[in-house]
Amino acid sequence: MRLPTAAITAGSLIGGWQLARRTGIRPLGGVVLAAGGVLAGREWARRTSPVVTGALLTTYASAFALSHPLAKRIGAWPSVLVVSAAAAAASYAAADRREPRVRPAQ
């Protein structure tokens, strides 16, 4: 089954932020963020090359990091939505719209 990694990345960035915000427990948001990264990362590794997988993981982590200073300029919700959309777009372009890489039979 092909998991839509664009939805995973956007959902985990938004969901992690909301969970941390609503509970006041920031590490809970980090758990959601990490779980999204692991799940999407496994799919990226299955569908793309190691270089593309690394670039997408870097994009995902950078989106999280950039959301903080961006929130000071445009607000929390807009910031999270912007970085989530950017991470999802990168994921879709690099992994979701392509057919999975076929691995040789062992």
For the terminal residues, how far apart are their CA atoms? 20 Å
Radius of gyration (Å): 14 Å
Helix coverage percent of residues?
over 70%
The H/E string reads HHHH
Name the shape in a single word.
elongated
Structural class per helix/strand content?
A: mainly alpha
Low-confidence stretches: none
Estimate the mean pLDDT confidence.
92
Main sheet specs: none
Number of helices: 4
Estimate the strand proportion.
Answer: under 5%
**Number of folding domains?**
1
Number of strands: 0
Structural notes for this entry:
α1 (5-23) packs antiparallel against α2, α2 (26-47) packs antiparallel against α3 and α3 (50-74) runs antiparallel to α4 (76-96). The model has no long low-confidence stretch (mean pLDDT 92). The protein is mainly α and 106 residues long. The protein has one domain. 82% of the residues lie in helices and 0% in strands.
Please give the structural blueprint.
Elements: H1 5-23, H2 26-47, H3 50-74, H4 76-96
Helix pairs in contact: 1-2, 1-4, 2-3, 3-4
Essential attributes:
elongated; mainly alpha; 106 residues
In summary, what is this structure?
Helices cover 82% and strands 0% of the residues. By secondary structure, it is mainly alpha-helical. It has one domain (5-96).
